[in-house]
């Protein structure tokens, strides 16, 4: 009977490559819905992302954790080339978290950028007009200079996003940070204010549990168990940039 059951035992491999957005969440939901014929022994999440949406990163965590409870399979997360911004909410949520030797981890701050069209419109004598109801409808107008009020609003949004990101990481790795005797003040100074962490630095701070690849870790623990890819990649799917920019907020 055990031999028959082993035919269905698999490594459930989730590849989160590219920007974390609603499309990625939808593909994850669809992929896991087709996994009911197998018996996952481990849920392995590969992360190669320059960031994206905090909300969608939390949605991904909820979906993966629900699937973990339903199957009694642990979640192991693996940073590949990049795990930046909200991708770290997913990385630090695993039962065990790993990074490869040359992974780039970090970027826990946000910035806003926009293109001002005011001078361009003036050059070609084009007048932009818009109509809105309510005095607070338009926070940022690309056809006008950024106002002091608009700047304060943007600062507030970015501060809230940064606080949420850091809070989620601390919540996910609270025990590991405590074992390293890191206070919130120390984390802010040594981890969050450091733009990029190497895998060695992340391990020393308790951000991850080890330096390893998915293949090496899974083989050591589960042997040559077959992998099933949850999210099939299409020809026109987003690709991770070779070197991401300091990623920014879409406001």
Helix residue percentage: 40-55%
Low-confidence stretches: 1-5, 238-251
Would you report the number of β strands?
8
What Rg do the Cα atoms give?
A: 21 Å
Q: Assign an overall shape.
A: globular
Tell me the name of the CATH class: Alpha Beta
Structural class based on helices, strands and sheet pairing: alpha/beta
Give a quick account of the main beta sheet: strands, pairing sense, barrel closure. Answer: 8 strands, mixed
Continuous helix count = 10
Strand content: 15-25%
Distance between the termini: 56 Å
Helix and strand element order: HEHEHEHEEHHHHEHEHE
- Remind me, CATH topology? 2-enoyl-CoA Hydratase, Chain A, domain 1
By CATH, the superfamily comes out as 2-enoyl-CoA Hydratase, Chain A, domain 1
Q: Can you tell me the CATH architecture?
A: Alpha-Beta Complex
Number of domains: 1
Mean of the pLDDT scores? 83
Summarize the structure in words.
The protein is an alpha/beta fold and 251 residues long. It has one domain: 2-enoyl-CoA Hydratase, Chain A, domain 1 (Alpha-Beta Complex). Helix content is 40%, strand content 18%. The protein is built from ten helices and eight strands. Strands 1, 2, 3, 4, 5, 6, 7 and 8 form an eight-stranded mixed β-sheet that branches. Strand 3 (75-84), helix 4 (87-91) and strand 4 (96-99) form a beta-alpha-beta unit. Helix 2 packs parallel to helix 3 (54-71). It is globular and about 70 Å long. The N and C termini lie far apart (56 Å). Mean pLDDT is 83; it is low at 1-5 and 238-251.
């Amino acid at each position: 009977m055990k031999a028959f059951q082993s035919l269905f035992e698999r490594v459930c491999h989730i590849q989160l490559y590219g920007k974390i957005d609603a499309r990625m969440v939808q593909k994850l939901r669809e992929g896991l819905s087709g996994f009911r014929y197998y018996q996952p022994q481990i849920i392995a999440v590969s992360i190669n992302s320059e960031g994206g949406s905090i909300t969608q990163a939390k949605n991904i965590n909820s979906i993966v954790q629900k699937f973990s409870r339903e199957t009694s399979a642990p979640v192991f997360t693996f940073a590949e080339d990049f795990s930046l911004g909200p991708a770290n909410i997913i990385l630090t949520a695993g039962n065990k978290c790993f990074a490869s030797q040359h992974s780039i981890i970090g970027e826990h701050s946000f910035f806003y950028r926009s293109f001002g069209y005011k001078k361009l419109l003036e050059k070609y004598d084009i007048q932009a007009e818009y109509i809105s109801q309510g005095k607070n409808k338009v926070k940022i107008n690309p056809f006008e200079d950024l106002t002091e009020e608009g700047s304060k609003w943007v600062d507030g949004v970015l501060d809230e996003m940064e606080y949420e990101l850091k809070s989620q990481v601390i919540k996910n790795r609270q025990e590991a940070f405590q074992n390293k005797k890191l206070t919130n003040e120390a984390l802010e100074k040594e981890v969050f204010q450091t733009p990029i962490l190497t895998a060695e630095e992340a391990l020393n701070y308790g951000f991850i549990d080890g330096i390893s690849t998915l293949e090496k870790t899974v083989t050591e623990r589960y042997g040559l168990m077959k992998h099933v890819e949850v999210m099939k990649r299409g020809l026109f799917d987003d690709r991770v940039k070779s070197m991401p920019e300091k990623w920014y907020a879409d406001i």
